[in-house]
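I would love for you to help me understand the pair of lines that follows before we discuss the fold together.
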Amino acid sequence: MKLDLRNNAAAQDMIRIIMREKNLSAEDAVAFAVNRDMYQKILKAGYASIAFDLWGHDNPERVWDALSTPVLDLKFDKLQENLIEGISEKESVDYETAICYFLIFTMDYLGYHI
């Protein structure tokens, strides 16, 4: 699946953070974020859309990192596909936004303020 993040600076920034923290490629950073634990946290919290919209508010002067190639060719296993589809349906959002919800909760997991 192609994920075009050219107009999604927050997602690019979060992916770059995961890349640095876990020494992963952009594609692997997204795959790292999409997991059962994050899925449960998204559902339990109930504020994914608010958290995603507020990404970076704790440090508004920080320049966000951008991906050198913001169009990603992602490959998910069946479980990950089901998790993304589940969030998409339960949160009434598109596929890209569902992935962004996984990213924002991964930021929390890594110790960043969301």
